[in-house]
Amino acid sequence: MERLLSILSKSFMVLGSAALLALVLLATGNVALRLTGAPFAGTYEIVSFLGAIVIAGALAHTQRRKDHIVVDILSEKFPAPVKRVLDTVNYAITCALFGIVTWQVWVWGDKLRQSGELSETLQFTYYPFVYVVAAGFGVLTGVLFLDFMKALLRGREDGE
Fold this sequence. Notes:
The chain is mostly helical. It has 4 helices and no strands. 78% of the residues lie in helices and 0% in strands.
């Protein structure tokens, strides 16, 4: 499972990176063309869609590397067994939370697909972007579940 999540998180990071490159090129091109009086139509929409993919693509890989900001002013004073219990509870709660987020974003994508809703300016069907975001949250949920299991098993190995 760890290998699969590693491949998925890296793949989503590559997708997010490609979306970031496209976003930067589009925004830069739009600014340059604005000087000539002919900016791209719908840039705001496309940048919004790409921004969502950038964020969703980076979440799981960042969690795997433990690169998120951690504020441990209070917990750094706890003994190691208490920290392990708190880590386990934290991973369980965040896994459940992002599991619900994944499910609800997917449901939203289904509603958009079934209704045929289109973006305002360019008239894009944008439910595929919503599905990609849901999948990114799904991979994050998987990584959090794996972290939860590691924390739980580490606590049992230590005799707790």
